């Protein structure tokens, strides 16, 4: 019996083994099932790391979407198992894991914004307004104001704006949430975009992002994705296996 739905498409790479090289024409993309893969490019004879792909991350998708030559090289940094996806299995993958589809759309949006930025810098005006991204909330010894305390620790994440995104850094889209739980979530149970804390007047609420996989709980009650749940001082908020406490 297969250990996961795409077992028949799994390929294994040893640490240091090349997955593909920049410039080659490919017809497959990959999803990391276990281990880690480094993406890099050669610049003036030097290897420049672009990012590290880990479980749940995908790469090489442009070969399926546009049939373009590889723009990066990839290498296993440890023994890993990848799901190799060609055009005939692409639809099945998207239907079975909505988070991959959502993240792929976000990645394409980022590329569009980057193109618009370059056009603006060259003097071409675009219709989209440029909005500065909020700075990530720091994990510090916050003692006053609204915050999410790390259960069992003295540190906390300050909630300094009316809307705060919680999740993990996404090397695929290069997006970092306002509260980055990457260092706390060693088992990778928190989705890249997992939940959002919002403030309306003096009231606070949390809502789970569409596509989050492992659930968001307030005092053991699981949230319905997209529906705000009011939170008050002392409420325990769990995202995957990470537990936080809301404080005012």
Helix content: 10-25%
Number of helices: 3
Number of distinct beta strands: 20
Which structural class matches the secondary elements? alpha+beta
**Average pLDDT over all residues:** 81
Order of helices and strands: EEEEEEHEEHHEEEEEEEEEEEE
Shape: elongated
Q: What percent strand?
A: 35-45%
Q: What is the CA-based Rg, rounded?
A: 20 Å
- Give the low-pLDDT segments: 124-135
Question: For the report, how would you describe the main beta sheet?
Answer: 7 strands, antiparallel
Description of the molecule:
The chain is of the alpha+beta class. 15% of the residues lie in helices and 36% in strands. It is built from 3 helices and 20 strands. The strands form 4 sheets. Strands 9-11-10-20-19-16-17 form a 7-stranded antiparallel sheet, with no helix packed on it. A 5-stranded mixed sheet has the order 13-12-14-15-18, with no helix packed on it. Strand 4 (37-43) and strand 5 form a beta hairpin. Helix 2 (87-96) packs across helix 3. The chain is elongated. The N and C termini lie far apart (50 Å). The model is unreliable at 124-135 (pLDDT under 50).
